[in-house]
Amino acid sequence: MASARTRETVATPRPAASFPVAEGEDPWTEEEVEEIRQELLADIARMERAIEVAEAGLADLFEEGTDGAGRDPADVGSSNFERDQEMSLAQNARDMLEQAQLAYRLFESGDYGICESCGQPIGKDRLQVFPRATMCVACKQREERR
Questions:
Q1: How far apart are alpha carbons 54 and 49 in whole angstroms?
Q2: Which single residue of 42, 61, 78, 90 could bond 54 by disulfide (Cβ 3.0 to 4.6 Å)?
């Protein structure tokens, strides 16, 4: 699992002073940095579990079959809907896992907290609410409008 590998390669925590803050924000404390690190690791583990559960659910749905031979059309439709929902949940969990892994790699490399779009600080407040963030609010809003 990625989280086991990630935990094995954990170096000493980055000094709090090395993480950027937005204008007007207080510098990071060692405790806040460690809290973010732990939250990212917990996100990674949680998403890996969610993927396992979703994939197990998908396997069960595929074992039931979807050909509809001798089955009521409404049952076939329900099964297809369930399968699509499970596939969507699994993909969403994979996307969130990738976000968390990227944020953790940035954290470990010392590049955490810098917007991948504009290069400015993401902001301590934003990262404390959403540790997987890799863009500042302004850049993320621009991206979502596209």
A1: 9
A2: 90
* pLDDT of 64: 64
Q: What is the distance between the alpha carbons of residues 18 and 33, in angstroms, rounded to a whole number?
A: 10
Q: How far apart are CA 10 and CA 37, in angstroms?
A: 10
**Which residue ranges of the chain lie beneath pLDDT 70?**
1-17, 61, 64-71, 75-76
CA trace torsion 46, 47, 52, 53 (10° rounding): 70
What is the b/e burial string over 99-136, where b = at least 16 CB atoms within 10 angstroms of the residue's CB? bbbebbebbbeeebbbbeeeebbbbbebbeeebbbbbb
Is the overall model pTM greater than 0.85, yes or no? no
Sequence length of the chain is 146
* Residue 115: both structure tokens together: 């917007």
Closest C-alpha among 126, 10, 145 to residue 136: 126
| pLDDT (tens digit per residue) in 62-78 | 776 555 556 677 766 77
Measured distance CA(140)–CA(81) in Å, rounded: 32
